[in-house]
Specification:
Helices cover about 40% and strands about 20% of the residues. The chain is α/β, with parallel strands linked by helices. The protein has a nine-stranded mixed β-sheet with strand order 8-9-7-6-5-4-3-2-12, with helices on both faces. A four-stranded antiparallel β-sheet has the order 1-15-14-13. A hairpin with a 2-residue loop joins strand 13 and strand 14. Helix 1 crosses helix 9 and helix 12 runs antiparallel to helix 18.
Amino acid sequence: MPSPPLPAPSDPVAALAALLERSAGRFALYPPPREFRRFGDAEFVEAVRLSNGDPIPARLSLHFDVPAAYRARFCGEPATHGADDGARASAYLERLIREIGLVGALFDRDRDVVQVSLAPGMARWFEPAQVAELLDSLGRHFHVPPRHATDVAMTIEPGHADRRTLAAWADAGFNRIGYGVGSRPGGLAAAGTGLASELQAVVEHSREAGFGNVRLELPYGLPGQPIAAFVAMVEAAVRACPDRIGLRDCAQPGEQSTPGPGHPDAPQRARMLLAAADVLEAAGYLHVGLDVFAHATDALVHAQRHQHLHRDAMGYGPHGDTDLVGFGVGAISQIGGCHARNHLQVRDWEAAIDRGAHAVHQGVQLDDDDRVRADVLQDLLCQGRIDVPHLEERHGIDFAIYFAEPLDALAPLFEAGLLAWRDGGIVLGRIARLGARVVAAAFDSPPASAYASAIPMRVPG
């Protein structure tokens, strides 16, 4: 039997707004990239060797990144591209294939690939046939099971989601697709009343093409965006019946938000988020965590119920603890006890590949403290609770002593009923889960004084 929910605070909008107005990281991986240092070939190769040597090596998730200029903008209009983009894509593809060979040679071939994903924006820069060539090269260097046993995911943008294009991507080997509603010429204002039919068509055509999982990404907190318009967008998305719906706060630092003033303030965004959650939950979508909602039948919900939902640099995944291997400019890998990132500058990444070297430039080896905090954040962001007895047994710590300062900083949230101790662990209520980044920030490595401003000193009860 699931535990009963925590009682709602007397003013949920004010309580959520108090969390949203505090800046916090994405916490897609821990330690975060700000902790990365110089990290070279020898360290990367050793991390893979140790990972291969685990008694039961983790399965693999592979990801392809693109230069920043080509990434999709979920919170605004897409970047304009030049006439030479086709030649650049071909050159980039050729080096990606070489990087696959360089990195793939390090991994034992008995390690199954359970997920392959493209960075948002890659599907606009590359043709489906080019990416099909990329996927074919994976099979020569990694053990990629048949399509039905591997998630092959991509994100597509408005203007690139017609029937023929979707069918071409499905034929290339993709079975999961996301659609970024905010990435459109003219912004969301250009959508008008046709958005509902557009979303319906995208979902229907994706399913006709053979995609087994469809995700819609909806932006909120855009400059001048009315609450009613956002709620109408969520209702339109629900009627289209995708498998997953993401809600992106475009006023939060770190999101690719539209420049300029006019973003809704924290109370307005709290109303948007709460109203969206009400609509989604009434329609049978469950809050997986942070900005992700999924239908009750979705693999993410199944994974959460069976406690093998996992969060890495790419977000939530249903396959449990996997090793993430990144290819391309700025791509992040999470392998065993190390995090590594490729060169951020295109010319540096190209130079590394051209001389036959791995493109890793920065990274970090996790120490014991990193592993404790990473486990806390996995619990918190994936399960909406912290399993204190399990953490204490696994890491040999006294939780209350080890995290005395974070617990003190979070006291206002306990007092307001947003957090509670239950069965020896910590449970996040509905509001705390919607604003979980601020709760996560308390367990980050700086002392409490460094993030005191991130924790509301007074949260309405």
